[in-house]
């Protein structure tokens, strides 16, 4: 019997990580898209694009984890787990880059003055960046847990 790594694919902790990642990604996208002015800056468009990639990835893995936890434990194969780890790492670094760039541009726009970005709008952009940071943290931790499980397969 193989050792169960907490947070690895197929565990209830992994389901919680994926569900949190999905919620934070959706919240980041929602806060960014509440106003139609996000497309005037490339970094905000980058965050919307990355969150648009992270949400379906997370939803599929939430469904796989939920099936594994509630219905039947899936037999993980090395190749499938490796693809999940690579996908997680790529999307986590993309979401980190998008969150950092969005936070820095929103902070810069607040420092420059209200003519570029009203305070309410910039605070919404900062909130979107914070949600993207939280999504990155959960995605990266999930990929590390799965990387920890990989040698035992």
Automatic annotation (TrEMBL):
GO cellular component: plasma membrane
Localisation: Cell membrane
Listed transmembrane segments: 15-34, 41-64, 84-110, 131-150
Membrane topology recorded in Swiss-Prot or TrEMBL: Multi-pass membrane protein
Residue ranges constituting the Casparian strip membrane protein domain according to the UniProt record: 10-138
Pfam (any one): CASP_dom
Keyword Lipid biosynthesis: no
Quaternary structure, from the entry: Homodimer and heterodimers.
Protein name, UniProt field: CASP-like protein
């Amino acid at each position: 019997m193989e050792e169960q790594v907490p947070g690895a694919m197929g565990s209830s902790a992994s389901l919680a990580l994926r569900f949190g990642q999905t919620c934070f990604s959706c919240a980041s996208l929602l806060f960014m898209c509440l106003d139609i002015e996000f497309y005037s800056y490339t970094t905000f468009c980058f965050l919307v694009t990355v969150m648009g990639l992270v949400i379906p990835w997370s939803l599929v893995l939430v469904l796989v984890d939920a099936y594994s936890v509630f219905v039947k434990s899936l037999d993980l194969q090395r190749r499938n787990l490796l693809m999940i780890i690579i996908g997680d790492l790529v999307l986590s670094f993309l979401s980190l880059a998008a969150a950092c760039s969005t936070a820095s541009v929103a902070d810069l726009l607040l420092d420059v003055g209200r003519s570029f970005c009203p305070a309410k709008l910039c605070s919404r952009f900062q909130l979107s960046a914070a949600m993207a940071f939280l999504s990155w943290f959960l995605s990266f931790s999930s990929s590390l847990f799965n990387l920890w499980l990989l040698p035992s397969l």
